[in-house]
Amino acid sequence: MNARIHDPRPCLLGEGPLWHPTRKQLFWFDILGQKLLTLREEWTFGRPVSAAGWVDENRLAVASATNLIVFDLRDGTSEPLVDLEADNPVTRCNDGRADPQGGFWISTMGRLAEPGAGAFYRWYKGELRKLFPDITIPNATCFAPDGRTAYFADTAKSLVWRQALDAKGWPMGERQVYLDHTGTDVNPDGAVVDAAGNFWCAEWGLGRVAAYDQGGKLIEELKVPAAQSSCPAFGGPDLQTLFVTTARKGNPQATEDTTQGAGQTFAIDTGYTGQAEHQVIL
Residue 143 in contact with residue 150, Cβ under 8 Å? Predict the structure, then answer.
């Protein structure tokens, strides 16, 4: 399971890969470069953009630093959906993913990773609700195949939680620690759950995506040739290709990594099958 280059363009902060199940096409973001990219196209937004869910064949729900928008791939136009901490210049959007019920989870964080400045939100059928406040670096938003468990992390705390969900996808009960990496060099970043329920997490600074079973046991370790591995997504014709974004720098004040491979987007044929990305219901 060797990594190959999917796209050589170096992102300052690659994030949010999304395999569109009807277009059969990978989308991803450069948060600091303020771009949405595909192999053939790129769009610049003039503010950080970080994550998306597919609405239909031609439209994406996109998280930006100030709001959620519906972005039309045909002509590059957008319509506002709801404000997202638009009155807070300290924060920007970060990790996000659509859930099996049709909701869209999105997180915010301080532009310089200010402690506790961020939060996790969920947009669902016209309502934006704050779910978990006081998060420093929110990441790893993903969902079990049955839609009854969500996973999410605070990279700054080296913790991944899991959260039971009700039939409509809202949290119920208290979150539980799923992976505790405190005191180690493991920094959980973006993540995705495959069709068997395994949790695949990009681990920032280690140049890898690690797979854990539902009990939290490490079962696979896939290397990518860039230290700052940021987020995985399953795609390809059989959903067995793991696409992985990486970064050249973590925030505007960080030192840029100019080593070969840094910031590029990679693909790995895994033999595991992912879930098709879920549709956002507006």
Answer: yes
28-41 confidence digits (pLDDT tens): 999 999 999 999 99
Q: Quick check: 180 and 187 in contact, CB under 8 A?
A: no
Structure tokens at 157: 């705390």
Percent over 90 (pLDDT), the chain? 98
Which residues are catalytically annotated? Answer: 189
Who contacts 236 (Cβ-Cβ below 8 Å, separation ≥6)?
Answer: 19, 267, 269
Q: What's the CATH superfamily of 3-269?
A: TolB, C-terminal domain (2.120.10.30)
| pLDDT of amino acid 223 | 98
Distance in angstroms (rounded) separating the CA atoms of residues 219 and 4: 21
Distances (CA, A) of 53 to 4, 8, 98, 170, 281: 25, 24, 6, 18, 10
Q: Per the structure block, which two tokens stand in for 8? A: 């050589």
- pLDDT tens across 100-119, in order? 999 999 999 999 999 999 99
| pLDDT recorded at residue 228 | 97
**pLDDT level of residue 251 (50, 70, 90 thresholds):** confident
- Tens digit of pLDDT for each residue in 173-190? 999 999 999 999 999 999
